[in-house]
Amino acid sequence: MHLAYLPFPCKAKTMANWTASDIPSQRGRTAVVTGTGGLGFEDALALARAGANVVIAGRSPSKGAAAVNQIRQSVPDATVSFEVLDLASLDSIAAFGERLRSSIGGLDLLINNAGVMTPPERQMTADGFELQFGTNHLGHFALTAQLLPLLRKGNQPRVVTLSSVAARSGAIDFDDLQSERSYKPMVAYGQSKLACLMFALELQRRSDTAGWGIQSIAAHPGISRTDLLPNGAGARSVLGMARSYLWFLFQPAAQGALPTLYAATSPRAQGGAYYGPDKLGETRGYPTVAKIPPQALDIGSTAKLWVDSERLTSVLFPVDEVQDSNVATIRKISPR
Q1: How many CA atoms lie within 13 A of 48 on its CB side?
Q2: What is the pLDDT of residues 101-116, one digit of tens each?
Q3: Which is the catalytic residue, given 5, 183, 189, 274?
Q4: Which CATH superfamily is domain 3-223+254-313 in?
Q5: Is 262 a residue of the active site?
Q6: Could you tell me if 157 and 213 are in contact, meaning their C-beta atoms sit under 8 angstroms apart?
């Protein structure tokens, strides 16, 4: 039984004070990490140090080049590159998937990390989705589908999807997924991060059923010192100013990345599990098994979210056990 199916998983003593120095060799493994800064950068840096071939995927070529250069300064023999990926554009996601499928033979690790947090006004993606739900959840949902053929060819492949402590109070409003009737920044963010967690759990169930051979794991960073708040809510917002002036309340990004890195690399990490920090209500500390909010354990809701996500993104995951070298089936849905 996967840990994800247990409403109150036990703490794992074997994780005590686990750090990036405990990452086993990643030589011969290829990893894609979404996001060029903050947690994504720390993930990429740690994986490069462990010997992985790392592809950093993000919107900004200049930020991507800076991240690659910084990693190479710390790890001179790093195998690291940057690829343009805009998770707020299904066309960009499809193009990224096509480029990767034509350039590598398999993918061992996908870290769905990049995100948008609490823009004060409702914004939309290129495809008309509310920005947070569209980027944080639907973008990574479509990306995982695009890369599924490569993951199925990988060596003990894993998909790690980032949730948040905000998922605890999140709710999926199936009647208003795009926050068209009412937009409240933190409510929309909580919904998007709950969706990320539900996606990770459902991906494991479907991998088990269809024989994809993929470990799907969720993680969250607690409260970490990144640019997510000022970039989303704005530097002058209450949240942005809290990030700037109450910086001591936020743990360093490298510490916040540990649950993700544990999920991505530890031989003890389990498919269908959820990892987060072990101190102060999972807001800081070292990796441990995180408590899954009850709303994420509703299998009916996770299945419905999956079907709705396929409909919205026009991407279908395969349903049989026969390995298909092609990308997940695309169907035309009009209108979205």
Answers
A1: 25
A2: 999 999 999 999 999 9
A3: 189
A4: NAD(P)-binding Rossmann-like Domain (3.40.50.720)
A5: no
A6: yes
